[in-house]
Write a structure and sequence with these properties.
The complex is a heterodimer. Chain A is an alpha+beta fold. Chain A is built from 14 helices and 14 strands. The chains are: A alpha+beta, B alpha/beta.
Chain lengths: 390, 265
């Protein structure tokens, strides 16, 4: 277990699409006889509506509720945006559709941890329009339970997880109703009671979920976060209206796009392993394309523009250009580019070698050479040394 | 007065907050120039900081036959032995490593970039300075647009950049921190045989110390690749009392190899 973790609880992300209905009863779900409630707002929950119950039952319990259909596409986009917004607070981030968000605080300096928690609150508030409940604890499970017990906009910090978990009801384990009934029959009604049982003994009664339940109840946190990863593709594009025929104008736009991509790469600590440029030509359905796989990843504007600008200078588009897109379909982690990490002084041979290889990729192998003595006594200068690609 | 000082401090604080402490420094806190001793004591004296400045652009300027390439090759040979990576960017000059050989370079740490045009030369110079090449020798023209990025890239990585220029290039002169002007002052004969040239070196520009100092150097031609004369081939005139730390053998750019061989007889 790494820890500590901070959990932020916000309403289900589906509810965030209806911010104009904050404070009013709202039920999300497809209307139909067999369909069930996906999410509901707090006023609806106060009327007895619960996720998982049938829509008909929900309507019966809260007749004044607004009924809205889920928007899965928009929810996925919101989840991705939220995860991306939290990713610069901590490297380990998980956001779930039901409104549970975690960030791992392990490795951050003490003052940075409290700053990250404050930022988490601010960003969740901005994204959803409602104050999150926050919990900080040694593991994701205990952090979630702490957050559930915090006031909106406040943080509940837990230092001793087993002690905090012990009095909580066993329902917090999120087991199937059948398994919950069996726990009840065994007389295990609090997490403390579950924690006192040996994992093998409860596993023999409930199967693998029994073992998991004991470890959770003991605060051993057997389930790590399913950490969000930034998408491994990025692009920047400009629509050109009216279409452009001037090469210098295209170079100017390409340089700006390279700057945008380089800034994004810098934020992600990544480099471009493959670069693709698309020119949308007026009157043509299919854009013209150039792409290249580079040996050493590109990360700065100058490096990206060195490649993209080289293409544009030689490109003969079939007509006026009405759109320019620069894509990076393959990224590489920056960790593999920290060539200076293990060397000192000016011993940056690897980095210089990488720069030479990038030049070779763009301008041919003979552009950068190393010299090997051959017939050094020859009167013909070209015979004295052999130039080998650097 | 007090109010304007407070406003200025507020503006400085904002710059620090946004771009970091290093983005704006008081002159008293600027790091001192980091010199790299060239091995030629008289040249180091002219720089005023006891060596060529790292992270800056230095220019050797003079007419053909004034000895600037010779001097640059002497720096390069020493750099190949002392620094991890040295690079020559040879745009239409025709760098011949044979001219370097008498100076005992370590060719394993030397790379030569032969760009097809000036734009690629500029791109290569910036990329290599950014990558941290220890010593960068620029032979031939660079586009003006590459000089500012080259300056900033070298300043960040600490690369030592030396450029050779035939005529006064305003953009290059503006970008350089140190400019030496070389002018041939005479030939050196032994009997009736031409064995070298005498050149005067003047510090035309120096951002790091007062400019204007000058000296004279004797440049002797190597008499064949295998025959090293006992006299140093690059040095101050015998009349001065400058001692040279190491023997430097230099082939001069202004004389074609067959001329030398003729002289060897």
């Amino acid at each position: 277990m790494g820890g500590p973790y901070c959990c932020g609880l916000i309403p289900h992300l589906e509810l965030a699409h209806h911010q104009q209905l904050i404070g009013q009863p709202l039920v999300i779900g497809y209307w139909g006889s067999g369909e069930r409630v996906l999410a509901c707002s707090e006023p609806a929950a106060e009327a007895g509506v619960r996720p998982g119950m049938t829509m008909r039952n929900a309507e019966h319990l809260c007749p004044a509720a607004f009924i809205a259909e889920p928007r899965p596409g928009a929810t996925v986009r919101l989840r991705e945006r939220l995860a991306a917004a939290l990713y610069d607070l901590a490297p380990e981030v998980e956001v779930r559709d039901d409104g549970r968000c975690w960030i791992g605080l392990e490795g951050l300096p003490a003052e940075q941890k409290s700053l990250a928690v404050r930022e988490l609150r601010a960003r969740l508030l901005q994204a959803t329009g409602s104050e999150p409940r926050l919990g900080v604890a040694p593991g994701p499970f205990s952090a979630r339970l702490a957050a559930q017990r915090a006031q909106p906009g406040r943080v509940l910090r837990v230092e001793d997880a087993p002690r905090f978990l012990a009095p909580l009801p066993a329902e917090e384990l999120d087991l199937d109703p059948e398994l919950m009934d069996r726990l009840d029959l065994l007389g295990l009604r609090t997490l403390g009671a579950v924690a006192e049982i040996g994992p093998r003994r409860l596993e023999s009664q409930l199967g693998p979920p029994g073992r998991l339940a004991v470890l959770l109840a003991r605060g051993e946190e057997p389930q790590p976060l399913n950490a969000w990863q930034p998408p491994r593709c990025m692009s920047a594009a400009r629509q050109l209206e009216p279409p452009v025929e001037d090469r210098e104008a295209l170079l100017f736009i390409a340089r700006a796009l390279c700057g945008d991509l380089a800034a994004e790469l810098g934020l992600r600590g990544a480099g471009a392993k493959k670069v693709r440029m698309l020119l949308a030509i007026e009157g043509q359905a299919v854009p013209e394309e150039r792409s290249s796989l580079v040996r050493n990843p590109l990360s700065s504007q100058a490096e990206l523009f060195g490649l993209a600008g080289g293409w544009l200078r030689e490109w003969q588009p079939a007509g006026p250009v009405c759109g320019l897109t620069l894509e990076i379909p393959e990224l590489e982690a920056a960790g593999r580019r920290q060539l200076r990490l293990w060397v000192g002084g000016d011993a940056v041979a690897e980095e210089v070698q990488a720069a030479l290889e990038r030049l070779q990729e763009r301008h041919g192998e003979t552009v950068a050479v190393r010299l090997v003595p051959a017939l050094t006594r020859s009167g013909v200068p070209t015979q004295r040394y052999v130039a080998e690609p650097a | 007065m007090r109010e304007s000082t407070a406003q200025l401090q507020h503006a400085i604080d904002k710059v620090h907050l946004r771009f970091g402490e290093q983005a704006l420094l008081r002159a008293t806190r600027l790091p001192p120039a980091d010199p790299w001793p060239s091995g030629l004591a008289e040249i180091d004296r002219l720089t005023g900081i006891h060596g060529l400045p790292k992270g800056r652009l230095s220019v050797l300027q003079g007419a053909t036959g004034s000895g600037k390439l010779t001097l640059a090759l002497a720096f390069l040979a020493r750099a190949t032995r002392e620094l991890a990576q040295s690079v020559v960017i040879d745009h239409r000059v025709g760098f011949d490593p044979w001219a370097l050989q008498p100076l005992h370079p370590d060719l394993r740490s030397l790379a030569v970039v032969r760009p097809p045009n000036a734009e690629v030369a500029g791109e290569a110079a910036v990329a290599l300075a950014r990558a941290g090449a220890g010593f960068l020798l620029l032979l031939g023209e660079l586009p003006e647009s590459a000089l500012t990025p080259l300056e900033s890239a070298a300043a960040r990585s600490g690369s030592l950049v030396v450029a050779c220029a035939n005529a006064r290039d305003a953009a290059l002169a503006h970008a350089s921190s140190l400019t030496f002007g070389l002018e041939r002052s005479g030939w050196i004969y032994e009997g009736d045989q031409l064995v070298g040239l005498r050149t005067s070196v003047t510090c035309l520009k120096n951002k790091l110390a007062p400019p204007g100092a000058g000296t004279e150097l004797d440049i002797r031609y190597p008499l064949g690749a295998e025959t090293f004369p006992e006299k140093p081939l690059l040095g101050a005139p015998a009349k001065s009392e400058i001692s040279w730390g190491e023997l430097a053998l230099v082939f001069h750019e202004g004389v074609k190899p067959w001329v030398v061989r003729t002289a060897v007889g």
